[in-house]
Amino acid sequence: MSDEMKQMEPPKMPPGISKVPSAPFPGNGTLDADVIIIGGGGAGIPAALSALEQGAKRVVMLEKRNRAGGNAIMARGIFGCESQVLRNAMVYTDKDEVFTNAMRWHHYDKVNGKLLRAYINQSGDTIDWIRKRGIEFKIDTTTRMSYHQDPTWHCVVGGNMAKAMGALFRDALDKGLQVYFETHVEEILIEGGKVAGVRASHDDKELIVNAPSVVVTSGGFLPVEEKVKKYYPAYSSESFGGFMVKTNTGDGIELIEKAGGALENYITLIREACAASDSAPRLLSEFVREPYHVWVNKKGSRFIEETAGANLQTATNALMMQPDVKAFAIFDESTMQYMIENGFELSKADDTRGVPLPDLKEKFTEIAKKAPDAAIVAHSIDEIADWIGCDKDALAEEISAYNRYCAQGYDEDFNKQRKYLRPVTEGPFYGILHQGIVVDTVGPVRIDHKGRVLDAEYDPIPGLFAGGVICSGWQSNDYCGQYLFGSALSFSINIGRISGRGAADYAAKEGV
Fold first, then answer.
1. What angle do CA 98, 100, 103 make, to 5 degrees?
2. 211 exposure class (CB count in 10 Å sphere: 0-12, 13-18, 19+)
3. What is residue 279's predicted lDDT score, i.e. its pLDDT?
4. What residues in the chain have per-residue pLDDT under 50?
5. Nearest to 378 by CA among 397, 394, 392
6. Region at 507 (left for phi over 0; alpha for psi -120 to 50; beta for the rest)
7. pTM, whole model, 2 decimals?
């Protein structure tokens, strides 16, 4: 992945997030507030709005970028169960069943059951909460993650989550939210073991905000590789595709640690498999996930039954055990013709799944010309081996064994389903690079199901709350799994709501 991709600037803001000026800087550099929100993204905006709805009169948001939105603007949708949208579609998603299945999916590892439960229980209400602001969501075949599960991924109609976050942000502003952009928080102030406010810098001037409640929602830290490797030693930015926003450096984690908050000794990577090169069109990601292909690593060795592509998250685990976390999908002309006649099997788009794709070969050939590192059209398997950089005999032997399994209708190595066993015998031959992508970190801040930051003894620090992907306890090793697709932003919004309400209640009890 190029340095340019690794350290990209925040993308152009899609329509939906209002660009507003910072609130007036106080003459004496001091403000009083009920609740302070650090970060104006997927958790910060809901936290601010929820605090205001809960009765907080003075809510101040401090955001180090020049506008709100964060990474939330790039999401298509969010997870939710038992929403009105699902009921209208006659899709039954019982929150008890979703919770139980999710806990089992994570093998009860690194997951705080009460926190996950609080998130899932509120998720349907959050969909309806957003819809009250004029945002509509859709549930249909394109929001299903696989054949065997009901859709729970609510995607915004006529746009993406920038529309939803924009609606929430405007509502918070209308209710009196004060926002300071390009403001960096230097310290969370603690007096007598309780939160007393923050010390920040704005336009080279110090800003002190006095408040009994602080909610930290400052996002992950993927661009800081050294920090990522501290919690996830196997990570290497050279081994993953994807994108990252360089302003996300995990500042809030250090703020919480200095304030006495506990940090877990691990993080989760939000990652997916079966994504082609950054430089290649999205169509390659649909191609590479198809179960008809042969997957080999850079040594030319097959390593998994290829229907693993049906699950974007866990397939990454198999990739991470391969050299350079890379693999290659190989298929032949007969399989190309089969897909032309029958369409893709696993595509998320209705216009490419199960329908004829007459121009598929032409599109693939054009992609291979534009992105030769990501795809190839070859005359022989030896040419594919040269492209991969593996031993020709090794790849030829692997393909020969696979073809034998296809002929006998039984995969001796990985027990691939018979209906997906298609031989690789008829040229031209096609190859696609695929690899994992990683888009953010999860953790390591320890919180409880009320969004309160906990110390080393698992006791809450009075007045200190957190929200968003800096929080641990809702993901284990594999991001979201088959039950909570779209959960990064969904969790952020939901824990933001929970933390915002809790911060407002705490401030009220402190008599501010």
1. 105
2. buried
3. 67
4. 1-14
5. 392
6. alpha
7. 0.91
Three-class secondary structure of residue 342 per DSSP = helix
Token output for 125? 């209400």
Half-sphere exposure at residue 424, Cβ-oriented, CA atoms within 13 angstroms: 25
Nearest to residue 259, comparing CAs of 496, 465, 472?
465
State the amino acid at position 164 in one-letter form.
A
What percent of the chain has a predicted confidence (pLDDT) above 70?
Answer: 94
- Specify the amino acid at residue 325: V
* Confidence (pLDDT) at 6: 39
Token representation of residue 150: 């009901």
CA–CA separation, 109 vs 88, rounded Å?
A: 35
Cβ atoms within 10 Å of 309's Cβ, excluding its own: 22
Q: Tens digits of per-residue pLDDT, 77-112? A: 999 999 999 999 999 899 999 999 999 989 999 999
* DSSP labels, 116-147: HHHHHHHHHHHHHHHHTTT--EE-SGGG-SST
Cα(391)–Cα(384) distance, integer angstroms:
10
Q: Distance between CA atoms of 101 and 99, rounded to whole angstroms?
A: 6
d(CA 481, CA 484): 6
3-class DSSP state of 153: strand
**Is residue 33 packed enough to be buried (19+ CB in 10 Å), middle (13-18) or exposed (0-12)?**
buried
